[in-house]
Amino acid sequence: MTGPGYVTPTVDGVEDFDYLQIGRRVGQGEGSKIQWRPVGGYVEAGITWTWGLEPGTFAFELHPRNPLNDAIRQADIDRHIYQFAASYHGVPFSGRIMKRQQAGKPGSEKFIYSGVCNKKWLQTGYGWVNNFFPPEIQIGLTGKQDIRFGPLDMVAKSYVSSVYTRQGRPVWPGLPIRWPSGWDQPDLADINSLDDLLDMVTDVADSLEIVAMMARFTRLDELFGQAQQQYDAGFSVDLYDGHGTAPSVFRADGISALQGFLDMNGSSFLRLDKLFSSAGQDLIATTANRAGYVFNTQRVRDNTRVQFRTDSQGQIADYDMSVIAPEMTRAIIGGKSPSMVNDLIEIGANLAIAALVAVVASIPGAGGVAGLAGLSVGDLFDDIFFAYQVTADNDLEDELGEDGFMEGFADNTAAYSIDSYAIGKTALKERGGTKELTLNTATGGAGGRGISFGADDGTARRFRLGDKVTLWDRGNVVERHVTAVSVSSKPGALMREAVTLGADKRARGAWTRLIGGVQSGAATMRGFANST
Q: Helix crossing, 152-167 with 220-231: angle to 10°?
């Protein structure tokens, strides 16, 4: 992403970032690009890359006399968007400045800039029931939720495409779709019951990453959260700056213009001139036509040949292991039982009563009971039957014994529903005791011979986000995947890497694999779960 004339900075022979630069969009619409300029001399800088849905972060402090301070102050971040791009060992980072802090005595202030990576987009998009219609009129083809089912990469990208096509923002799903071999996508209309759905995925391997997601004005990072935890999936939103070869994406600008024609809150509502001005556009295209953002999902990569050792001098400066005791062994899911389940229960209860009346009426001397043949439960069980559900970790419960905390609430609006099992199992994974390890390492080592974060170089000394690596500690060997990497730089000093190795939170089982993408429990409130 460096342009012509941008040098790779070095500081007295000490390793540094490949580049740090900020930029702004020049022009709007087709053909617009990001114009970059180097950050220049800085006091200190740090970047954190993240694997999951939480956006990465960055911060840098500039020298008071750096001309960039005045340039930004004249067109400040409260009214202008400043892109940030960096690279370290060939691994790019892109985001935007979200905060500018200027503090201190006049003439000797500190100028500090901080921001987030472009996964922030996933916190600003919501999956409507129907993204084509305005919010005042929501007509769902799959009921009161927008239900999508299939491989994680396909399902997540379909939501991203729908949401940002509606918004008219250049956020596009990357192509090609990562389609698992051996999977034939069924038609959702052909699935007649939950039993059919469960039977279909019982034998599906974890590697296929099959999910079902239900959106009802759900924020995208919350919508994808369950799948991320179950499959340890990686998510990225990378900036394409409009220079060089355009990436392959799914772009639907023509559809976006048509949607804007029906948006009562937009400036194009029922404006035929706006609609006709876009008539020459293709409804869909497969290449980016301007600077924009490319969404992708990733899988954990086996790179266990990379081994961190606590007995290797200089490799690990220090480490921080966090072990959290279990808070519960049983997750309670529930509140109001969903109407579909209540209808089934009501039908079943009525049939059972009718059968019982028929049996009793057949007993000699009990003919009067036949008069009860019209008896039914009506709406008796609407808010009683199957209102709550419990998912238990029996092995952990036995191991902790009678002193272990037992119950915890996993927020959800519906027990015995399509998503309850997955939410319960994932809650147990999160609050049933976890381990997380952060390694602080001196970058590279002498002559670059140490282990370091970066793009592949053909050796066992480089690792990336999402790589499963090995940690050796006094004879004990564990394998964990890299969930975050923080790199800090201070000119004239060695760079430092903080590598976070996450615990394995994959929730197992056919139901869990199926319901990978339902919004996380944090997306709802216990009050909603118990509402009538």
A: 170
Residue 420's DSSP bridge partners are none
DSSP structure string for 275-334:
HHHTTTS-S-EEE--SSEEEEEEE--EEEEEEEEETTSTTT-SEEEEEEE----SEEEEE
CA distance 70 to 502: 41
For 320, other C-beta atoms within 10 Å of its C-beta total 11
Predicted TM-score (pTM) of the model is 0.73
d(CA 104, CA 463): 40
Contact assessment for residue 123 and residue 116, using Cβ atoms and an 8 Å cutoff: no
Of residues 407, 416, 411, the one with CA closest to residue 381: 416
Helix axes 152-167 and 253-261, enclosed angle (nearest 10): 50
Q: Which residue has the tokens 């800085």?
A: 42
Sign of CA dihedral 318, 324, 325, 330: negative
Give the E-state strand segments of 310-447 in sequence order: 318-324, 330-334, 388-392, 407-409, 434-442
Looking at residue 482, the DSSP 8-state letter turns out to be E
**450, containing H or E segment:** none
- Quick one: residue 445, left, alpha or beta (phi over 0 = left, psi -120 to 50 = alpha)? left
- Reduced to 3 states, what is the DSSP secondary structure of residue 94? strand
pLDDT tens sequence across 18-53: 999 999 999 998 999 999 999 998 999 999 999 999
The two tokens of residue 105 are: 């005595």
- 332 neighbors 409 (Cβ within 8 angstroms): yes
Give tens-digit pLDDT for 466-513. Answer: 999 988 877 778 888 999 999 999 988 878 888 888 754 433 333 333
CA distances from 482 to 312, 320, 466, 498 (A): 20, 15, 5, 11
DSSP 145-204: SEEEEEEHHHHHHHHHHHHHHHHT--EEEBSS--PPTT--PPPGGG--SHHHHHHHHTT-
Find the distance separating the first CA and the last CA of the chain, reported in whole Å: 54
Q: Using omega within 30 degrees of 0 as the cis cutoff, is the peptide bond preceding 180 cis?
A: no
Distance (Å, whole) CA 328 – CA 331: 7
